[in-house]
From TrEMBL:
SUPFAM superfamilies: Formate/glycerate dehydrogenase catalytic domain-like (SSF52283), NAD(P)-binding Rossmann-fold domains (SSF51735). Belongs to the D-isomer specific 2-hydroxyacid dehydrogenase family. This is Hydroxyacid dehydrogenase. It comes from the Bacteria.
């Protein structure tokens, strides 16, 4: 049996891989670069990787299991993986940190932290006491969390400390289903958009969720705040820009985007095709929600534990439904 770790280069990863080599000397463990050639996995049985191309899956002859050390799978060739009956497992250990990031961005947005910070560096104090000089409290706000999964559940814990009233959106909602810290649950997106004063996006990007917020329903967000820590494409890019520029949306905090630097490119690239980042009712962040040491090590621990389950014939956790994409 051949197991390959692609792009698992951190010292923490290396320590875990060495432990596996010692524990299972009969199994061949290999470390390869993140941007590996398809020939490198031709006879791989189990692959642990942060990225995977369609042609790699098609070329592989023995690949049966794929482990992804994070949650989002929108850039993986799910259809080909399904056609080849490859079992895919991901990790949700980073979700609590994404929720923390969403909460921090919300406080920064409502508190005008970035605006006041930048102006005070120029000597402008915002002390006139006029309404426009106020910052806004989170306390008691109505919040809609679009995606009552792992991130949404952790986010709700933070919001409840501020006595927020919370509505969660969940697909395939069961009758009388309850989730701790959610006051209301619905499967109706428009109902949730109408309810909340703050709209949080914490759902995975799928064919169904792409362009979920668009020109047809943006009017439901008039005078409200939007916080997106899931994927940029869930919100129509032009609609987002126009609604912020024209003050339909009161403001937005964004950790996810539409354009990213490519691997190997100079790390200088604006995050949108529209100048969203120039608006003063926006707080922006470079997709860093899961970028803490604790998140990375938690994902690694879970992935190695799940791989160990497979090697020892135990049940796997977090098997992805390749039709749903999560």
């Amino acid at each position: 049996m051949e197991v390959r770790f692609a792009g698992c280069k951190s010292d923490y990863w290396k320590g875990k891989i060495n432990q596996l080599k010692e524990k299972y000397p009969e199994i061949s463990f290999f470390e390869i670069n993140r941007d590996f050639e398809k020939e490198e996995i031709e006879f791989t049985d189990i692959l642990i990787t942060y990225r995977l191309k369609k042609e790699h899956v098609e070329f592989s002859k023995r690949l049966k299991y794929l482990f992804v050390p994070y949650a989002g799978l929108n850039n993986f060739p799910l259809q080909v993986l399904k056609e080849k009956n490859i079992i895919v497992c991901n990790s949700h250990e980073n979700t609590k940190y994404v929720a923390e990031r969403a909460f921090a961005l919300t406080l920064a947005l409502l508190g005008k932290i970035v605006l006041f910070h930048n102006d005070l560096k120029k000597g402008f104090w915002h002390r006139e006491g006029l309404y426009k000089e106020y910052w806004e409290t989170l306390r008691g706000k109505k919040c809609s969390i679009i995606g009552a999964g792992n991130i949404g559940i952790d986010l709700a814990k933070f919001l409840k400390v501020f006595n927020c009233e919370i509505m969660g959106v969940k697909k395939r909602l069961k009758n009388y289903e309850k989730i701790q810290n959610f006051d209301l649950l619905t499967d109706d997106i428009n109902k949730a958009l109408s309810f909340g004063q703050i709209i949080f996006l914490t759902l995975p990007l799928t064919k169904e969720s792409e362009n979920l917020i668009n020109e047809k329903n943006i009017y439901l967000l008039e005078g409200k705040y939007l916080v997106n820590v899931s994927r940029g494409k869930i919100v129509n890019e032009k609609v987002l820009y126009d609604s912020l520029k024209n003050k339909i949306l009161k403001g937005a905090a964004l950790d996810v985007w539409y354009t990213y630097p490519k691997e190997g490119e100079e790390n200088k690239k604006l995050p949108s095709n529209y100048p969203i980042y120039e608006l003063d009712n926006v707080v922006i962040s470079p997709h860093k929600g899961a970028h803490t040491r604790e998140a990375e090590e938690g994902d690694i621990d879970f992935t190695v534990s799940n791989l160990t389950n497979l090697l020892e014939g135990k049940d796997l956790k977090n098997i992805v439904d390749l039709d749903k994409g999560y």
